Amino acid sequence: MNFSEKIKKLDEIVDKMENKDLDLDESLKLYKKGSNLCDELLKEIEIVIKNIEEDVNE
After folding, report:
1. Taking Cα atoms as reference points, which of 15, 17, 21, 40 lies closest to residue 30?
2. Considering the chain, what is the average pLDDT of its residues?
3. Are 44 and 50 in contact (CB under 8 A)?
4. How does pLDDT run across 20-35, given as a tens digit for each residue?
5. Number of domains in the chain
6. Most exposed among 1, 9, 24, 45, judged by the fewest C-beta atoms under 10 Å?
7. CA 37/CA 13 separation, integer angstroms
8. How far is CA 45 from CA 3, 36, 52, in A?
């Protein structure tokens, strides 16, 4: 899944959590998926920023 797809998936998860009457188990599953996606996105962004910083410092 690329960056844009992850953002779209995260948005879908947020929409489900905001707009649906979910039981606790389903809410926790969606929360965990969203949290994992956020972690992946942050790691990708950190790599991009490090690469930009390296390019600027060369």
Report:
1. 17
2. 92
3. no
4. 789 999 999 999 999 9
5. 1
6. 24
7. 10
8. 9, 14, 11
